[in-house]
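User: ok so my PI wants both of these folded by tonight, can you help

Assistant: No problem, let's get them done. Here's the first:
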Amino acid sequence: MNPRVKLAAAGTPSGGEMVLYRHDRDYAIWVDGQDLMNSRQHESELELARLGCAHLASHDAPCILVGGLGMGYTLRQALDMLGPQGHVVVAELMAAVVEWNQTYFGGLNGQSLGDERVELQTVDIITLIEHSQDWYDTILLDIDNGPHALTHSENRRLYTREGLLACRRALRSQGCLAVWSAEPSKKFERLLMACEFK
């Protein structure tokens, strides 16, 4: 059995450390000693896109916002569900994650960042959402661990009433917000309903 190899590291906005490891053919990203994501377990990232994009089958040119690039699995699934006129904006706060996708993860996600339908923005998705209105047919959020932030404490704002209402404003009529979470949260579900998400 081959040992785990540290490939790269980067600081997080909250002052922690994010580390990329490879073990045999698998990759893992850890933050402050906790496993944030790995290439062996990514079905939930695919399902996020499936759920969020299911209503787009009849749309000729949908516009999707993917919050959090990760290893590119959600982006890959979203692209596979869109036609040639679809457009996907990817917001990734950390330049290191973008670099790792370009250097290491292209084989995992079919070189998704090179797809002409993709627009990559290395920005805070909260700012992007707050400056958008009636723009997206779907918003796919895979930020941190969901409502309980791990990497960037400011991400918690996205999961507040104000953040969710900003998401509603950014969505077009009949738009869909899909949120990845590491664990169930009845409190967050109640907040979604209070913000008139169905």
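One down. Here's the second:
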Amino acid sequence: MISVIIPTFNEEENIAQCLVSLTHQTVPRTEYEIIVVDGGSKDETCAIAGKYADKVFIQTSKKVGGARNDGIMAAKGEIVATTDADCILPPNWIELIKKDFLDENLVQLYGPVYPIEVGIGNKLSLFLANTFSRVGYYSQTFYYTLGCNTAFRKEAFIKAGMYRCIDAGDDLEIALRMKDQGKVMFDGRLKVGFSMRRYEQYGTLKSIYEWVYIVSHGGETQKYSYTQKKYK
């Protein structure tokens, strides 16, 4: 059993396409569960999610990291995967995760992203991000993991202390602790469609600058209203 965790907040325009992509996987639906953890949406997010997900509930922990933690603690699977409500998952996403975790030493798995929206700027931005991720992994100097395309061995994730409940960088910081639990692996085949809508709305450079500022200050900020979605 693999459990897929999706944090949401006011995602009625995007959540259906994400969940539909998850219901059209190459493995039987009985081999994985879908858990949506909502941050108190004011729209139809939960109602839409309820048509596809096995569990939909309101988060009790803070921030998006806390929402993921809540979902993982409610998961039945020994392997837990996280993605975002505005992502699109390839049909073999869960199949690849299952195969990679046949390696008993593996505790965290992650992969690259591609832009859902068209445009050379979006492609270039994520090409650079994916290159950065590969360089870090193959040089064994850092792990540029993203919460939209990551999977864990649940027991090791809990032992590592789970996600920090911070404004940004929680999905990168966790890898620093997971590597002490076992093997962290990048799989280039594990490609996820990533929405660039916030970068298009606020500007890529401004969004990246805000993100870097927050991460460099320990993931907490009073200076910026970060361009990521707001969670409880």
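Confidence is low (pLDDT under 50) at residues 202-215. Strands lie at 2-8, 32-38, 55-58, 79-82, 106-110, 113-115, 150-153, 183-186, 192-194. Good luck tonight!
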